Amino acid sequence: METQTHLKITDNLTIPLAEIEIQAIRAQGSGGQNVNKVSTAIHLRFDIKASSLPEHYRDRLLQLKDSRISSEGVIIIKAQRFSSQVKNREDALNRLREMIKSVTVAMKTRMPTKPTRASQIKRLDGKSIQSQRKSLRSKPGEE
Fold first, then answer.
1. Nearest one of 79, 70, 92, 72 to 17, comparing CA atoms
2. How would CATH label the architecture of 6-104?
3. What integer pLDDT is reported at residue 26 of this predicted model?
4. Are 69 and 75 in contact (CB under 8 A)?
5. 3-7, 37-41, 128-132 — which is least confidently predicted?
6. For the CA atoms of 24, 26, 29, 35, what is the dihedral angle to 10 degrees?
7. Sign of the alpha-carbon torsion through 93, 94, 98, 101
8. Angstrom distance (rounded) from CA 80 to CA 50
9. Which residues contact 50 (CB under 8 A, 6 or more apart)?
10. Is 104 helix (H, G, I), strand (E, B) or coil?
11. Which strand ranges, in their side-by-side order, compose the sheet holding 41-47?
12. What is the pLDDT of residue 122?
C-alpha cells in the first residue's frame, strides 16, 4: 500500500513522506486512564503549495471546498478513530491519499442537450391540466 519513503496515490503518482508532517497528540474524548498518558491521535499536515504534486493537481486541491484545507493551502487531518497510534497514522495517510486521488480523476465535460419534443408536449399538457384545476377552484361568477 505504501512504500518506506513515499505515499502511493495512484500507479504513477507518489508523494515523498518528507513532505507530510505527522505529529502524535493526545486523543480527545473518553478512553479511561490510558487516554491521559498516551498520545495515540495523529495530527497530519500537508502543504499543498510546497508539495511536489503536479501543478494541475495542486490547483484542483486548492479549489476544493473542504473544511480540512486551511486558507494558507495546508491540508490538516486529525485521526483519532483507533486506540492505536499506528492505525491512526495509517488512517490519516489513507484519508490524505483519498483526498488527493479525488482530484486526479478528470471530470467529464457536460454536453448540452435539448429536451425532446415529446417531453416538451408532456410538460405543456401538465401545465394546462394544472391551470384547469386551479380555475375550477374559483367561485362561480368571479371571471
1. 92
2. 2-Layer Sandwich (3.30)
3. 84
4. yes
5. 3-7
6. 120
7. positive
8. 26
9. 19
10. helix
11. 20-25, 41-47, 74-79
12. 97
Cα separation of 84 and 24, whole Å?
Answer: 11
d(CA 77, CA 46): 9
Give the helix/strand (H/E) hosting 15: strand 13-16
Cα 2–chain centre separation: 21
Distance CA 121, CA 114 (A): 13
CB atoms within 10 A of CB 48: 21
- Please name the residues in contact with 84: beta carbons below 8 A apart, sequence gap of 6 or more: 40
Identify whether the C-beta of residue 94 lies closer than 8 Å to the C-beta of residue 9. no
- Biggest CA-to-CA distance, the chain: 85
As a whole-number percent, the residues of the chain with pLDDT over 70 amount to 91
Q: What is the pLDDT of residues 22-47, one digit of tens each?
A: 998 888 777 666 666 788 889 999 99
Q: Sign (positive/negative) of CA torsion 2, 50, 85, 42?
A: negative
